[in-house]
């Protein structure tokens, strides 16, 4: 269930409050959908849905649906076949798959007719547009909607403020200031250089600024999604051959029997997820089916899903049964390298967990433990025993530091992106700056259009920039006559 | 034939003005009791465009001005157009206004500014011969049907008592002239008083009433009516003009020669050439201030009333004093511009000043080419009243006074082009209102005139408002080259201010451009075929895709001429539009991107907010701050409200919600009343 674009907002909200299902979800999963009944006349008013609570550490899940088809979604997924539920009333419903009619979950459903601004800042005027469209559908019946919207936009504003007051905010503000100055200087060059004394050097300075900014923003965008991980949780996947003890490791890590453990190979056939807090960092831990060729259709599907998870993982814990290791260290390293290749597309982001260490002779155990460290072509290796808890503490330390690196320690280094929405606007901003470079020498009006677009895109994060603000800079920096 | 007709217009001989003017207009007695559709007060750029537009729309129009012979006078700089301003001139022309054609007649130095910066920001500009400009405007007005001109000073604006049902709301009924008690009635009045409304002139430490040197200000009665009777909020603005320099006393060899374009480009879409022949054009000269200029300014500050009062001045630098004080230690540009073919004066652009005349002379003599220069007329400052333009509708009608329209500097703008644009729009609407037709508006998405008016009526002014291209969000779509396509059809079909000759010409152009673009898109060749056809063009062959002629035209090095010579059978008939087609092709992708945003804004602008809302008592959830902003600005559409700073999305929805409920209630109420009415009989 991936959001099509990071958007929420709309007219009704279905909140589904479920008793947790068996597969390691948070204790309460609250699906909430916000649906917006704008007519389909607007091509851009597509129906959008998103998990609006974060992954990972949240106790409840809120799913919001917004757009013209949201009423339909409510009808076919929450069983309101006759008529829609009364607005703003929470109802406990079964949420069903519209095709198979299988019950997916139970939860609270809330329907908000009318237009609600999303958690992204409305694009200039877009809000009104939706409101207008909604008005046709009886917005007027909903008294107090404005207050609700107000509360939401307030919450949104406060949320944005909290985010913006930190280091990230300062970074964006600095970019915004520099971009505004670039725009002001290009605009001054266009509007005044023929009558007033505006040196040619102005544009050269803008060229430098624009390419610096573009490089900085692109670098920032390549932060490997650390900020988003912090918000949604690091995806850690446990993978490996059957019966290596993957489910045992999951149960150890979440300190409860989340997955069924048995000595029978192939016990886990689907992905089992659990959210946990690892030294303050949110982690979404998944246990997967053991990787092996199987004639069992269900198990084969499980293996397919396991491989899919591994590909999407931020960090993979490859669990190996120590008893299967060759006794010579050199051969063991080669074995592990070979094994890793069969499990992972690349070995950059994984930890090697040698489980069932208790089954090895003490001597071999120590030898492996010391000599496998620092072998080239192998990731960090830790011997543990889920049975005796041996090595578990040391393993947790390694895991914690890996997760911390993935999240980006907020105390160190460059600020990271926390929202997919910011990413989208920054990408547009960087692309617009490329437009400036493309047209710089052939058509300054089109080049300036690039800087304008860049200012608008960044403005969607830092606040709208009006023509007057640009003129303020022009008149401050240049002597412009009557 | 349309084109021939168009070029004939320039060849038309100007009539002998003085013999014509005196009998027609010096005597006002016969006008008393006469009912006009529209009265225009003022004969500057706004007034002349307003009067001509009103008459074109079909209104019996009277133009009243203090001195007939100053109609069409260029009070300040002898030039028209420029970056941003040139766009306005093209748009006024596209709506059949006067200033573009007058510029083509009177221009003596034509250049397209920003020639190397992209066609969207090209700035058509011309130095003008003052006498020729005035002659053209006067002749044009004299030959305009339904238009009468009269000399006089307006003493009072006649309005009805406030409507008891709508307190504070009046209707205009005419004007009263100062000499005697002549009342002339009209359904609409357009005020274009320029700097004359409570105007006062400043030179050194002396202040005298006046709107322009040698001309009295408008009567105190007029200001009184606007402020006291109609309760309009006014403010005070300042401007200034430089001294005029005796040309023979300037050593122009010490200044940098600045030549015009070798092929003058006319402003008007109807003209293929300018009155002035290319070789007859006059040059301008560029020179720079010296540290001596700054010294003179500083030494004379205590003798300079105007600049001392500069407490909350504009952000830009309106005078040489403000330039050297705000940007000290620099050299500032001074343009020496010709005032006309036969004039022996130079206009020093950039040297507006208000110090005593003897110090003005000392100052200009600090500039090398003017070491021995003589001043013909000293520079001076003007302060004048303006009416806060947020009290106007987008038709430039005073919201609280039916039939009263304002245009030009009275609305807080500066510049001929800004005045002309408003004048045309106010005049056309005044006529429509008088003739019981609905008023019309121009969107900021379709024209610079729309940007200008929207900025004025929804944001107001804190300093004289001047047009810049940076104010137009859709600059790449609002180009000088396509003003006719944007405005002429609308001007004919919806406004009625465009002649059918011009309308037909614009349709011909539109259809030809469309046909040419279709023909270009029909040329559909592989890259290798294109390479054969156009060997000099660096076409990348790595792409295996097919390219159209339109794609090719977007290449930097490809001109329409090249394509036309490669495909003469399909393209050669469009050679007349070669340049326009090239621009269209390059800008098309960007304009297509603009389109969606433009449509969204236009939808919001179609939702009007009632002008009589009491925002303070409105029973909806709005913050005090939002109420205050809405009450102050009174946006006329939801679109205008969304653009206001400080208006939250929630406020907009609440407002929308309220308006919808009220409208519905009103409608129900009206229906009920109608039913009751029917029952009684």
Characterization of the model:
The complex is a heterodimer of chains A (482) and B (681). Chain A is an alpha/beta fold and 482 residues long. Chain A is 44% helix and 15% strand. Chain A is built from 14 helices and twelve strands. In chain A, the strands form four sheets. A six-stranded mixed β-sheet of chain A has the order 8-9-7-10-11-12, sandwiched between helices. In chain A, strand 10, helix 9 (329-343) and strand 11 form a beta-alpha-beta unit. In chain A, helix 4 (167-192) runs antiparallel to helix 5 (201-221), helix 4 (167-192) packs across helix 14 and helix 12 (420-439) runs antiparallel to helix 13 (444-462). Chain A starts with 11 loop residues before the first strand and ends in a 5-residue tail after the last helix. By secondary structure, chain B is an alpha+beta fold. Chain B contains 23 helices and 23 strands. In chain B, helix 5 (99-106) packs across helix 6. The radius of gyration of chain B is 27 Å and the shape is globular.
Secondary structure elements and their pairing?
The complex is a heterodimer of chains A (482) and B (681).
Chain A: E1 12-19, E2 28-35, E3 48-51, E4 63-66, H1 70-78, E5 91-96, E6 103-109, H2 126-136, H3 145-164, H4 167-192, H5 201-221, H6 226-232, E7 234-240, H7 246-254, E8 272-278, E9 281-287, H8 297-312, E10 315-321, H9 329-343, E11 350-355, H10 362-371, E12 381-383, H11 392-407, H12 420-439, H13 444-462, H14 467-477
Parallel strand pairs in A: 7-9, 7-10, 10-11, 11-12
Antiparallel strand pairs in A: 1-2, 3-4, 5-6, 8-9
Chain B: H1 2-11, H2 17-25, E1 35-41, H3 45-57, E2 61-65, E3 79-81, H4 85-94, H5 99-106, E4 107-113, E5 123-128, H6 130-142, E6 147-151, E7 154-159, E8 170-177, E9 183-191, E10 200-203, E11 206-209, H7 220-229, E12 234-241, E13 244-246, E14 256-258, E15 284-288, H8 291-299, H9 305-308, H10 320-326, E16 333-338, E17 345-349, H11 357-364, E18 375-377, E19 380-387, E20 401-402, E21 404-406, H12 416-434, H13 448-459, H14 483-495, H15 500-522, E22 524-526, H16 527-533, E23 546-548, H17 549-553, H18 560-566, H19 568-571, H20 578-605, H21 624-633, H22 638-643, H23 649-680
Parallel strand pairs in B: 1-2, 1-9, 2-6, 8-20, 9-21
Antiparallel strand pairs in B: 3-5, 4-5, 7-8, 8-9, 10-11, 10-19, 12-19, 13-17, 13-18, 14-15, 15-16, 16-17, 22-23
């Amino acid at each position: 269930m991936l959001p099509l674009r990071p958007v929420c907002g709309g007219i009704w909200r279905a909140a589904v409050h479920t008793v947790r299902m068996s597969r390691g979800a948070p204790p309460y999963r609250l699906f909430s959908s916000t649906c917006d009944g704008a007519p389909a006349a607007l091509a851009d008013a597509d129906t959008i849905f998103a998990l609006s609570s974060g992954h990972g550490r949240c106790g409840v899940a809120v799913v919001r649906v917004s757009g013209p088809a949201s009423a339909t979604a409510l009808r076919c997924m929450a069983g309101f076949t006759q008529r829609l539920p009364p607005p703003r009333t929470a109802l406990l419903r079964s949420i069903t798959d519209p095709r198979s009619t299988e019950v997916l979950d139970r939860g609270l459903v809330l329907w908000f007719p009318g237009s609600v601004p999303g958690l992204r800042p409305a694009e200039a005027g877009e809000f009104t547009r939706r409101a207008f469209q909604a008005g046709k559908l009886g917005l007027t019946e909903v008294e107090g909607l404005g207050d609700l919207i107000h509360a939401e936009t307030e919450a949104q504003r406060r949320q944005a403020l909290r985010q913006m007051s930190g280091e990230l905010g300062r970074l964006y503000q600095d970019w915004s200031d520099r971009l505004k100055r670039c725009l002001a200087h290009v605009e001054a060059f266009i509007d005044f250089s023929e009558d007033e004394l505006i040196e040619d050097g102005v544009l050269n300075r803008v060229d430098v600024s624009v390419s610096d900014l573009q490089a900085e923003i692109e670098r920032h965008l390549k932060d490997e999604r650390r900020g988003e991980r912090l918000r949604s949780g690091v995806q850690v996947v446990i993978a490996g051959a059957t019966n290596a003890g993957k489910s045992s490791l999951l149960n150890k890590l979440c300190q409860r029997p989340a997955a069924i453990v048995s000595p029978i190979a192939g016990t886990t056939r689907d992905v089992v997820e659990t959210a946990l807090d690892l030294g303050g960092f949110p982690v979404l831990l998944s246990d997967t089916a053991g990787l092996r060729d199987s004639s069992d259709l269900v198990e084969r599907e499980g293996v397919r899903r396991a491989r899919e998870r591994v590909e999407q993982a931020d960090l993979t814990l490859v669990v190996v049964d120590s008893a299967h290791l060759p006794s010579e260290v050199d051969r063991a390293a080669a074995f592990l390298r070979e094994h890793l290749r069969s499990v992972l597309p690349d070995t950059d982001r994984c930890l090697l967990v040698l489980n069932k260490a208790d089954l090895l002779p003490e001597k071999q155990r120590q030898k492996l433990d010391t000599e496998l460290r620092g072998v080239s072509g192998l990731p960090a290796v830790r011997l543990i025993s889920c049975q005796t808890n041996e090595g578990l503490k040391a393993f947790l330390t390694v895991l914690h530091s890996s997760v911390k690196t993935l999240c980006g320690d907020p105390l160190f280094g460059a600020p990271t992106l926390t929202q997919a929405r910011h990413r989208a606007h920054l990408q547009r901003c960087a692309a617009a700056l490329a437009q400036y470079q493309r047209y710089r020498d052939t058509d300054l009006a089109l080049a300036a259009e690039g800087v304008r677009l860049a200012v608008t895109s960044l403005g969607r994060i830092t606040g709208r920039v009006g023509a007057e603000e640009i003129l303020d800079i022009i008149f401050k920096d240049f002597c412009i006559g009557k | 034939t349309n084109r021939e007709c168009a070029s004939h217009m320039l060849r038309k001989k100007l009539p002998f003005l003085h013999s014509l003017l005196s009998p027609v207009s010096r005597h006002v007695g016969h006008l008393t009791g006469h009912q006009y559709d529209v009265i225009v007060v003022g004969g500057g750029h706004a007034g002349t465009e307003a009067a001509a537009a009103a008459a074109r729309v079909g209104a019996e129009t009277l133009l009243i001005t203090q001195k007939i012979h100053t109609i069409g006078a260029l009070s300040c700089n002898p030039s028209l157009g420029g970056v941003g301003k040139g766009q306005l001139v093209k748009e006024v022309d596209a709506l059949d206004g006067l200033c573009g054609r007058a510029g083509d007649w009177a221009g003596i130095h034509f250049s397209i500014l920003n020639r190397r910066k992209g066609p969207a920001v090209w700035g058509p500009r011309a130095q003008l011969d003052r006498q020729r400009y005035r002659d053209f405007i006067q002749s044009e007005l004299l030959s305009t049907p339904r238009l009468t001109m009269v000399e006089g000073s307006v003493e009072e604006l006649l309005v009805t008592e406030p409507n008891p049902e709508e307190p504070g709301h009046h209707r205009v009924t005419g004007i009263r002239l100062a000499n005697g008690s002549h009342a002339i009635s009209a359904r609409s009045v357009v005020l274009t008083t320029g700097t004359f409304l409570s105007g006062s002139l400043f030179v050194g430490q002396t202040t005298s009433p006046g709107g322009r040197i040698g001309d009295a200000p408008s009567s105190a009665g007029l200001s009184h009516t606007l402020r006291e009777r109609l309760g309009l909020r006014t403010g005070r603005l300042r401007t200034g003009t430089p001294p005029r320099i005796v040309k023979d006393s300037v050593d122009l060899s010490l200044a940098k020669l600045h030549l015009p374009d070798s092929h003058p480009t006319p402003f008007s879409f109807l003209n293929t050439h300018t009155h002035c022949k290319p070789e007859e054009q006059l040059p301008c000269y560029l020179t720079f201030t010296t540290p001596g200029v700054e010294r003179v300014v500083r030494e004379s500050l205590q003798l300079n009333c105007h600049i001392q009062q500069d407490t909350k001045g504009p952000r830009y630098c309106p005078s040489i004093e403000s330039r050297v004080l705000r940007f000290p230690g620099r050299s500032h540009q001074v343009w020496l511009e010709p005032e006309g073919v036969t004039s022996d004066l130079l206009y020093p652009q950039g040297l507006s000043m208000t110090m005593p005349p003897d110090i003005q002379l000392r100052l200009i003599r600090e500039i090398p080419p003017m070491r021995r220069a003589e001043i013909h007329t000293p520079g001076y400052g003007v302060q004048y009243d303006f009416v806060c333009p947020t009290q106007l509708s987008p038709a430039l009608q005073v919201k609280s006074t039916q039939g009263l329209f304002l245009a030009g500097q009275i609305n807080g703008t500066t510049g001929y082009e800004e005045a002309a644009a408003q004048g045309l729009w106010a005049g056309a609407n005044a006529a429509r209102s008088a003739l019981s037709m609905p008023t019309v508006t121009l969107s900021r998405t379709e024209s610079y005139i729309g940007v200008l008016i929207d900025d004025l009526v929804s944001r107001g002014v804190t300093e004289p408002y001047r047009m810049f291209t940076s104010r137009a969000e859709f600059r790449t779509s609002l180009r000088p080259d396509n003003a006719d396509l944007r405005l002429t059809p609308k001007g004919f079909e919806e406004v009625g201010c465009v002649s059918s000759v011009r309308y037909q010409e614009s349709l011909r152009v539109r259809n030809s451009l469309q046909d040419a673009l279709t023909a270009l898109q029909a040329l559909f060749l592989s890259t290798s075929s294109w390479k054969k056809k156009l060997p000099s063009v660096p076409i990348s062959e790595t792409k295996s895709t097919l390219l159209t002629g339109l794609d090719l035209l977007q290449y930097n090095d490809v001109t329409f001429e090249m394509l036309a010579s490669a495909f003469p059978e399909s393209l050669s008939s469009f050679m007349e539009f070669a340049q326009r087609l090239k621009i269209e092709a390059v800008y098309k992708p960007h304009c297509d991107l603009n389109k969606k945003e433009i449509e969204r804004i236009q939808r919001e602008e179609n939702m009007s907010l009632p002008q009589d809302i009491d925002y303070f008592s409105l029973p909806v959830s709005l913050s005090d701050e939002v109420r205050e902003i809405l009450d102050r600005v009174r946006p006329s559409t939801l679109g205008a409200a969304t653009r206001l700073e400080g208006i939250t999305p929630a406020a907009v929805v609440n407002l929308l919600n309220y308006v919808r409920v009220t409208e519905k209630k009103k409608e129900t109420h009206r229906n009920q009343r109608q039913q009751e009415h029917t029952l009684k009989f």
